[in-house]
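Recall the central idea of this unit: under ordinary conditions, the amino acid sequence of a chain determines the structure it adopts. In this exercise we apply that idea directly, starting from the sequence alone.
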Amino acid sequence: MSDVDQIHDCVERYYTSLRGSDSAMVREVFHGNAKIAGYLPDGLHEMSVDDFAGFVEAQQPSPDASDAPRMLEILACEVAGETAAVRLRESYLGMTFLDTFSMLRVDGRWTIYNKLFHVES
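Accordingly, the structure predicted from this sequence is:
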């Protein structure tokens, strides 16, 4: 599987974790030292992986269980050695997010090292 395919798989698993409110899968796709930061309508939010995993798990019923609209688009993916930058758009919790992921390949596995997010609508 190519690097781009492996990165796309990680992004798909990330979105699956959101859709299923699956905190364990969140922890699998993010590097342990990752940071999540961005703006929601009420201002800047900054989270650790554990904070973000807890937030995702708290969304009950999960988006899948409530038949929330599903939308994931990978807009760009640039690989440079053991690093990558990915831009994606997804629907989550009734909003459309534009995310920028910084990714690392660690021990042969791609993980999200940083997530910056912006709410488009």
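The helical segments are 3-19, 23-29, 49-57.
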